Amino acid sequence: MTGSALGRRFDVGLLLRIAVLLAAGSALAWAITRPGLYATTLLAGLATLAALAELWSFLRRTNIIVARFVESVSHGDFSQSFDAGPQGGGYDVLGASLNAAVIQLRDERSATQDENRFLAALIDDVPSPLLRIDADDRVQLLNKAARRLLGGAPTVRLADLAAHGVAFAADVTALRPGERRSTRLVIAGAPTAALLSMAEVRQPSGPVRIVAVQPIQHELDRAELAAQTDLVRVLTHEIMNSMTPVTSLSATAAQLIAAADTGRDPAIADARAAIETVARRAEGVMHFVRTYRQLTRPPELRRRRVALPEMFAELARLFASDWPALPLTVQVPNGLTIDADPDLIAQVLINLLRNAAEAASGHSDAPAVTLAATALKGGRVAIDVTDNGPGVPEDQRQDIFLPFFSTKAEGTGVGLSLARQIALAHDGALTCEVADGGGARFRLVI
Predict the structure, then answer these.
(1) What are the residues whose beta carbons fall under 8 Å from the beta carbon of 300, sequence distance 6 or more?
(2) Do residues 132 and 139 make contact, with C-beta atoms less than 8 angstroms apart?
(3) Structurally, what CATH architecture does the domain formed by 304-445 represent?
(4) Predicted local distance difference test score (pLDDT) of residue 256
(5) Which pTM was predicted?
(6) Is the dihedral of CA 247, 251, 256, 261 positive or negative?
(7) Beta strand pairing status for 328-331 and 369-375?
């Protein structure tokens, strides 16, 4: 049936019911004015009420359908459609309009949900860790990077951030919208430089602060290492250029005067001793410079899966051969592996173990060294070399990784600098901290 036919049917039905109501009402009014027609009056009254009820029901059916439809939409149910049935009288037009509005709302809601899912996925994959802090100081780790960085301990309130460093928690608390500041947080037991920035978002429940935490220690180490490498390269180049002719000429002069020295002239003997001393010291300087030139060449990595129990067992045998009277405690979970260059990592650990043995044996009556490995969240591994020696003063814990810097009388300042180069080449870190029982703990994170 067409819409016009439905409209005519509704109009005819409505007029017929109005006509019946008017007729019943007129009959009731006529019967009331005639004495003695009680039965007629009663019948006319009942007919009037029935006609009125029928008219009310006729109009109310569509109103109920409209009310139920609007109620469904108000509860967010856009799957419903408006069906007034064969009412006509413009209800078909009303139904078409309502259905079109619902379809538009449904499409807009779907588009909004798609956009929200896209934004949620985008935030979750942002490489910078993001924190959400509401007006009640509740903290939410917004994305994967934040959960990897700060997921080691439960983080619900601002005070919980102290588990990652007291300075870090204080800086986040004091941070203001639009402000940027540097801080230090503790990652895998090692202090790490980070950059904080904050933005504020207004929501009906109150302002929400979004804090971005960007660890920058690795970039700072690389920049520092690059500057040191450039400095060493320039110095060694200039020193070698100046010392090469001195070394060559002094060696030649030493040979000539040695041939001319018959032992009868004390002056020639003194000159020979002086020239030979100069030649030895010139060669010593050249050896010193050649040693530091290795710092200017980045280590070439040959990565593979390395089983740490096997590597630690080999290191323990080497340690026992060099330090038979000094106990080495080895702690490593079975099956723990790293993706690294085994030769370079072994070189780093041998250097750290040697330093630890020297520090412990020269300080304690019961020297002890520990080599331990721990699996960290996110797939990384921490390798700790700990001793019960005097430790490293706080003001020297960064300097010991500088080229030329050494706390030993006969140290060259190459070992720890090269060890840090190897750590950075593995996208790792090498740090020095105070051990739990005193002494020093060097942590290599791979």
Answers:
(1) none
(2) yes
(3) 2-Layer Sandwich (3.30)
(4) 83
(5) 0.54
(6) positive
(7) parallel
